[in-house]
Design brief:
single chain, about 900 residues, alpha/beta, eight-stranded mixed beta sheet, eight-stranded parallel barrel, 36 helices, about 20% strand, binds adenosine-5'-diphosphate, binds magnesium ion
Length: about 900
C-alpha cells in the first residue's frame, strides 16, 4: 500500500482513501478538466501518523518521506520548475481534505516554497514585484497561523495597520513596497511569537505544513464540528499538495466559488461569487465584496464561458448540484475543487424534482435525495406576512427559517445567554471557525459581509440554522457590542431582532411567526407554489413505495384531525392522562381521598360521561381508522398537589390557627402516595389492578363512545392498550375486566363492538416474555421511551442534563438514545419482542409509539425489522411517511 497517490490515479469514489477533495480533484483530472497537477497523501497516512503520535513515538510513517520526494519530483518535472527554486520557484498549496467536508475546520497553506530568495525569482519571472510580495506575505500569514500557531489576529491587525497608514480600506491599494514592509513585519511577528525564524527551506515548509494538516484533525473545533455533524472521529484527513495557480496576479486574475444551482432556493441556473486579484481564501473570508458570475462575464468573458461549460459538464457527470472553487490566472481558468454541494432543505426538494424533469435522475432517486430532517425543517414556522414589521436591512438569504432573538456580538455571550434559556441572534461582521460554538447556541446568524458561500452561510446551512449574511448596510461594531443601520437606528446587545433566512430580511423587534407553505400544503390548502408541488410529488412517491404504516400520537380531536390531514393512518397512542387534568383534577382528588368503595364509585361515575365525550370526539376525528387508547398510565400523585408545597401550606395555616380540613386530608393522601421512584412505582397496569374501577370506567367509556359513533353511522375502530405490563398474568386479569365491560355495553346497546385489546411492551421483562404475553394480547405497541429508560436504567429527566455530555465525549453514544433509538440494545429488545410475539401469533400487529416513531434513523430500523406501523406526533407524521418510503427505496 502506498501512502501517496497522483491526482491522475484516483476517482470520486475513493473518498475513504483520498478524502473528498482529493477524490474529486482526481475525478476532475481524469475528466480532462484544467486542474493544477498534484498528489494526495492518503487518510490512511494521517491515521498512521496520529497513531504514532499518540503512542508517544512520534515521527512519520515509514517510507512516507521517500514517497513524497518521489511525487514531488514528478510534479516538478511536470511543471518544469523546482520547489522554491531561487530563479523560478514552483509553489504549492498544502490542502486538507477529509472524507466529509468540514468547512473551514481544517488547515490549508498556500504559496509554500517562497522564501527570501525565491520571492525575488518569482518577482523577476512574473515581472511583478507586488504580486510576489503579496504571495509571500500570504504564505507568512497562513503558515504563521496554522503551522506555527501564532495568533492570526496579530497578522490581520498588522495588515489593517498597513492599510490605515496608507489611508485605504482595500488591500489592493498596498504597493510592492508596502507589502515588502508587511513581509518584514510578519517575519518579526513569527520570530517574536515562536522564538524561531520562519523556515526558509522550501521542503521543510512543505513537510511542516503536511504535519499541521494532519494535526488539524484533532483540534477542539474540529472535534466539536464532528460531534455536531455526527462525523466519525477515526477517519483522519488526507493532504493534497498541488501546484499553485495565482488569482492575485493582477486584475485579469481572480478567484471564485460557484454552485451549479442556487444552493439556497434550488432555482436552476449557476450561482457564485468572484473576486478579482485575489487568492481563494479571500473570497470566503469576505475581505472585499465579491461580484456575481454575471458580472464576472463582463470582466472576463472567456473564463466565464469556460466556467459555465465546465459547470454544466460537472453537473451532468455527478448528476447532482455541484459546488466549485476556481481561480483565473491571467485569463486562464483553473478548477481547484468540486463536490456535490450542500443545500438548504428547500433547495434539496426543488433540485430533486427538477432533476427528474430534466431526465437526470428517476423519482426513486429523487426521494432518496431528500431527508425527513429536511422536511421537518421546511415545516418550521415562517414570519407572518401580514404582521407589522420594521425592516432594518436586507442581506442574503443564506439559510432559511425565521429566527427571533436578542442580538449578541460574540460567541461567549451567545453561549452564556443561550444556556440561561434566552434566544439569541449572533451578529458578526463575518464568522470564522472560532465562532462555531456561538453559532450552535444561537437561533440565527447575521453577518454584514460575505456571500452565500461565506463561512457563516456554509456552516449555518450545514447545521440548519437560520442565517442572513452580507447585510452590507449594517455597520457591525463587535467591540462596542452594537450595530448601526445606515440611516440611523442602533441595535445594541440584548435588543430583540428578527431575521428571515428565506428572504434575507432583518427586522427590528420580534416579528410574529406563521405556518410555512409546506405545512399549509399538508393542511390541504391549494397553493400555486413550486416548493409545495415538489414536496407533494416526493411524498406521493414515498407513500407509493412504503410498507410501514404511519399513525399519530394524539390526545385531542384537534390533533387527531390535523394529523389525519398530515397523512396519519390512525392513532397509535391516545394518552388519557391529560383528560384528568384541568377542572377534572377535582374529580381525581375525590377519587383518591374517597373513604370507601361508594366514594370511589361516585367519583368514577362523574368521570365516565366526560371520558365518553372525549373518546367520541376523537373517534369521530379518526372515523374509519384505528384509534389506540392507552388506559391511565402515570402515577396518581401526578394529579395531586406537590408534597412540599402542600406541607408548607398546611403548616402555615396551622400556625395562623386556621385548619383547612381539605388540605390536611389531601396531605395525608399525598404522603401515602408519595414514591421515591415514581417511574418505577404504582403506575400503568399496576394502577388498574390496585384500583380496578379506574380501568373499568375507562373501558366502559370507550365502548359507549364506540356505540354512540355507530348509532351516528360512523365507523369507530377503537383499540384498548394496557400500559407497563411485565407479566402475562397482569394482562390476563385486566383483559378479563375490560372484556366484561365491552360485553355489557354490547348487550345494553344491542351492538357488536370489535375492540382489540393489546399491550404496550415497554419493560425489558415484557420484551423477554413477549411470546407468553402475546397469548393475551391482540396487538403490541413498543413504548420505546420507557423501554429506553428501563433498558438503560436511567430516567430521562435526570440524566440528559447531568452526564450525557460526558457520554458523548467518550463516544458511549453519538446521539441521545431518547432522540434516536439505541438500535443495538433497545432495538434488540424490540426485535426480540416482535419475533417472540409473532411466534405465538403470526399475525400479531406490532407498532411503536415512542418519540422514536418520528425519528428518521429509527423509522428505517422499524421498517427493517418488519413492524406494522410507527406512531409519532402530528408534525412528525410527514417525516415518518417520507422516511418509511426512503427505507424501502434504499434497499431497492
Ligand atoms: P477549504 O477546504 O477550507 O476550502 P482549500 O484547500 O480548498 O480549503 O483551500 C483554501 C483556498 O485556497 C480555496 O479557495 C482554494 O481554492 C485555494 N487554493 C487551494 N489550492 C490552491 C492552488 N493550488 N492554487 C490556487 N489556489 C488554491
Ligand atoms: Mg475549498
Ligand atoms: Mg410508558
Amino acid at each position: 500500500m502506498a501512502w501517496v497517490y497522483e491526482f491522475s490515479e484516483g476517482n470520486k469514489d475513493q473518498k475513504d482513501l483520498l478524502g473528498g477533495k482529493g477524490a474529486n480533484l482526481a475525478e476532475m483530472t481524469t475528466l480532462g478538466l484544467p486542474v493544477p497537477p498534484g498528489f494526495t497523501i492518503s487518510t490512511e497516512t494521517c491515521r498512521a501518523y496520529l497513531a504514532l503520535k499518540e503512542s508517544g513515538e512520534g515521527g512519520e510513517p515509514e517510507g512516507l518521506a521517500e514517497e513524497v520526494t518521489d511525487h514531488l519530483g514528478r510534479l516538478e518535472a511536470a511543471m518544469d520548475k523546482r520547489l522554491g527554486d531561487a530563479d523560478d520557484p514552483l509553489l504549492v498549496s498544502v490542502r486538507s481534505g477529509a472524507k466529509f467536508s468540514m468547512p473551514g475546520m481544517m488547515e490549508t497553506v498556500l504559496n509554500v516554497g517562497l522564501n527570501d530568495t525565491s520571492v525575488g525569482g518569482l518577482a523577476a519571472r512574473s515581472e511583478d514585484e507586488r504580486f510576489a510580495q503579496d504571495s509571500y506575505r500570504r504564505l507568512l500569514q497562513m503558515f504563521g497561523g496554522t503551522v506555527l500557531h501564532v495568533d492570526s489576529e496579530l497578522f490581520s491587525d498588522a495588515l489593517d495597520e498597513a492599510k490605515k497608514a496608507k489611508g485605504t480600506e482595500s488591500d489592493l491599494d498596498l504597493d510592492a513596497d508596502d507589502l515588502r514592509g508587511l513581509v518584514e513585519t510578519f517575519k518579526q511577528i513569527i520570530k517574536s511569537e515562536t522564538g524561531r525564524d520562519f523556515p526558509q527551506d522550501p521542503r521543510e515548509q512543505m513537510d511542516l505544513a503536511i504535519r499541521a494538516v494532519f494535526d488539524s484533525w484533532n483540534t477542539d473545533r474540529a472535534r466539536l464540528y464532528r460531534r455536531q455533524e455526527r462525523i466519525p472521529e477515526d477517519l483522519g484527513t488526507a493532504v493534497n499538495v498541488q501546484a499553485m495557480v495565482f488569482g492575485n496576479f493582477g486584475m485579469d486574475s481572480g478567484s471564485g466559488v460557484a454552485f451549479t444551482r442556487d444552493p439556497a432556493s434550488g432555482a436552476q441556473g449557476e450561482y457564485g461569487d468572484y473576486l478579482q486579484n485575489a487568492q481563494g481564501e479571500d473570497v470566503v473570508a469576505g475581505i472585499r465584496n465579491t461580484v456575481s458570475l454575471a458580472d464576472m462575464a463582463e470582466i472576463d468573458r472567456r473564463s466565464h464561458d469556460d466556467l459555465m461549460t465546465i459547470m454544466s459538464r460537472l453537473e451532468r457527470h455527478y448528476r447532482d448540484m455541484c459546488d466549485i472553487e476556481f481561480t483565473v490566472e491571467r485569463g486562464k481558468l483553473w478548477m481547484l475543487q468540486t463536490r456535490v454541494g450542500k443545500r438548504t432543505p428547500e433547495a434539496a426538494f426543488r433540485i430533486a424534482v427538477h432533476m427528474v424533469d430534466e431526465g437526470l435522475i428517476q423519482m426513486d432517486e429523487a426521494v432518496l435525495r431528500v431527508t425527513g430532517d429536511q422536511l421537518a425543517q421546511l415545516m418550521f414556522p415562517r414570519f407572518d406576512e401580514k404582521a407589522e414589521r420594521t425592516l432594518l436591512a436586507k442581506g442574503m438569504n443564506a439559510s432559511p427559517g425565521a429566527a427571533v432573538g436578542k442580538a449578541v456580538f460574540d460567541s461567549d455571550t451567545a453561549v452564556e445567554w443561550a444556556e440561561r434559556g434566552e434566544d439569541v441572534i449572533l451578529v458578526r461582521k463575518e464568522t470564522n471557525p472560532d465562532d462555531l460554538r456561538g453559532m450552535v447556541a444561537a437561533r440565527g446568524i447575521l453577518t454584514s459581509r460575505g456571500g452565500k458561500t461565506s463561512h457563516a452561510a456554509v456552516v449555518a446551512r450545514g447545521m440548519g440554522r437560520t442565517c442572513v449574511c452580507g447585510a452590507e448596510s449594517l455597520d457591525v461594531d463587535t467591540k462596542a457590542k452594537q450595530f448601526r443601520v445606515r440611516d440611523g437606528e442602533t441595535i445594541a446587545e440584548g435588543d430583540v431582532i428578527s431575521i428571515d433566512g428565506t428572504t434575507g430580511e432583518v427586522f427590528q423587534g420580534a416579528v410574529p411567526v406563521a405556518d410555512s407553505v409546506v405545512v399549509r400544503h399538508f393542511e390541504g390548502e391549494k397553493l400555486d407554489d413550486d416548493l409545495a408541488h415538489a414536496v407533494a410529488r416526493i411524498m406521493a412517491h414515498a407513500d407509493g413505495a412504503r410498507r410501514l404504516r404511519v399513525r399519530t400520537n394524539a390526545d385531542t380531536p384537534e390533533d387527531a384531525a390535523r394529523a389525519r390531514r398530515f397523512g396519519a393512518q390512525g392513532i397509535g397512542l391516545c394518552r388519557t392522562e391529560h383528560m384528568f387534568l384541568g377542572e377534572r383534577r377535582e374529580l381525581v382528588e375525590k377519587l383518591i381521598v374517597a373513604e370507601d368503595e361508594s366514594g370511589v364509585e361516585a367519583a368514577l361515575a362523574e368521570l365516565l360521561p366526560l371520558q365518553r365525550q372525549d373518546f367520541t370526539e376523537i373517534l369521530e376525528a379518526m372515523d374509519g381508522l384505528p384509534v389506540t387508547i392507552r388506559l391511565l398510565d402515570p402515577p396518581l400523585h401526578e394529579f395531586l398537589p406537590d408534597l412540599t408545597e402542600l406541607s408548607v401550606e398546611v403548616a402555615l395555616a396551622e400556625e395562623r390557627g386556621q385548619v383547612d380540613e381539605r388540605a390536611a386530608s389531601l396531605l395525608t393522601h399525598v404522603r401515602r402516595l408519595h414514591e421515591q421512584n415514581p417511574m418505577l412505582g404504582l403506575r400503568g397496569v399496576r394502577l388498574g389492578i390496585q384500583i380496578p374501577g379506574l380501568f373499568t370506567m375507562q373501558a366502559r367509556a370507550i365502548a359507549e363512545a364506540a356505540a354512540d359513533r355507530m348509532e351516528a353511522h360512523g365507523t369507530p375502530l377503537p383499540e384498548i392498550m394496557v400500559p407497563l405490563v411485565a407479566s402475562v398474568r397482569e394482562l390476563e386479569i385486566v383483559r378479563h375486566v375490560l372484556e366484561e365491560q365491552v360485553a355489557e355495553v354490547e348487550e345494553q346497546r344491542g351492538v357488536k363492538l370489535d375492540i382489540a385489546i393489546g399491550t404496550m411492551i415497554e419493560l425489558p421483562r415484557a420484551a423477554f416474555l413477549a411470546d407468553r404475553i402475546a397469548k393475551e394480547a391482540d396487538f403490541f405497541s413498543f413504548g420505546t421511551n420507557d423501554l429506553t429508560q428501563m433498558g438503560w436504567g436511567f430516567s430521562r429527566d435526570d440524566v440528559e442534563s447531568s452526564f450525557f455530555s460526558r457520554y458523548f465525549e467518550h463516544g458511549i453514544f453519538d446521539v441521545s438514545p431518547f432522540e434516536s433509538l439505541d438500535q443495538l440494545g433497545v432495538g434488540g429488545m424490540v426485535e426480540m419482542g416482535t419475533k417472540k410475539g409473532r411466534k405465538t401469533k403470526p399475525e400479531l400487529k406490532v407498532g411503536v409509539c415512542g418519540e422514536h416513531g418520528g425519528d428518521p434513523r429509527s423509522v428505517h430500523f422499524f421498517d427493517d425489522i418488519g413492524l406494522n406501523y410507527v406512531s409519532c406526533s402530528p408534525f412528525r407524521v410527514p417525516v415518518a411517511r417520507l422516511e418509511a418510503g426512503r427505507s424501502v427505496l434504499d434497499k431497492r
